[in-house]
């Protein structure tokens, strides 16, 4: 789109529970339509992606991840990703939120580009509901 006023129609498939939660938030926040809520969510995603892209240098931070531990093969994949980056991952904390859902907090330290690759690799896995990366610059 050359301008935000040029509209394109898209179709997406979502699990009912995700759409129901989204609709609840839209109503609570007073959105006039799903489309406006989706546009806002996409704008926030783009802003976050740009912010992550601008992070450079030596960083310390945390990767916070929520995932479905019942998703087939996911635990093995997440473990393999973390084991490939033992030079950056300092520690992790795993918590069982519910029968199906787990929260993992991963402490990282290293080059920002390498840290972002880990976060994006975790984010790309099916069964991972959310990944949030927060870092700070390492000062001498």
From TrEMBL:
InterPro entries: Acetolactate_synth/TF_NikR_C (IPR027271), ACT-like_dom_sf (IPR045865), Arc_rbn_hlx_hlx (IPR013321), CopG (IPR002145), CopG/NikR_regulator (IPR050192), Ni_resp_reg_NikR (IPR022988), Ribbon_hlx_hlx (IPR010985), TF_NikR_Ni-bd_C (IPR014864). GO terms for molecular function: DNA binding; DNA-binding transcription factor activity; nickel cation binding. Binds 1 nickel ion per subunit. Residues 9-48 form the Ribbon-helix-helix protein CopG domain. Keywords: DNA-binding, Metal-binding, Nickel, Transcription, Transcription regulation. Ni(2+) binds at residues 83, 94, 96, 102. Residues 61-136 form the Transcription factor NikR nickel binding C-terminal domain. It comes from the Archaea. One of its GO terms (biological process) is response to nickel cation. Its cofactor is Ni(2+). Transcriptional regulator. Belongs to the transcriptional regulatory CopG/NikR family. NCBIfam families: PRK01002.1, PRK02967.1, PRK04460.1. This is Putative nickel-responsive regulator. It comes from Methanoplanus endosymbiosus. The lineage of its organism: Archaea, Methanobacteriati, Methanobacteriota, Stenosarchaea group, Methanomicrobia. The gene is nikR.
């Amino acid at each position: 789109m050359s301008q935000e006023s040029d509209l394109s129609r898209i179709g997406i498939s979502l699990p009912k529970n995700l759409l129901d939660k989204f609709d609840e938030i839209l109503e609570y926040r007073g959105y006039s339509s799903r489309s406006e809520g989706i546009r806002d969510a996409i704008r926030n995603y783009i802003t976050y992606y740009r912010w992550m892209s601008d992070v450079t240098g030596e960083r310390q931070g945390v990767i916070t991840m929520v995932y479905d531990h019942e998703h087939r093969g996911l635990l093995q994949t997440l473990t393999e990703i973390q084991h490939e980056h033992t030079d950056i991952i300092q520690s992790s904390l795993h918590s069982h939120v519910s029968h199906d859902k787990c929260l993992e907090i991963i402490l990282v330290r290293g080059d920002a580009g390498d840290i972002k690759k880990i976060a994006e690799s975790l984010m790309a896995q099916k069964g991972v509901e959310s990944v949030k990366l927060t870092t700070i610059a390492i000062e001498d």
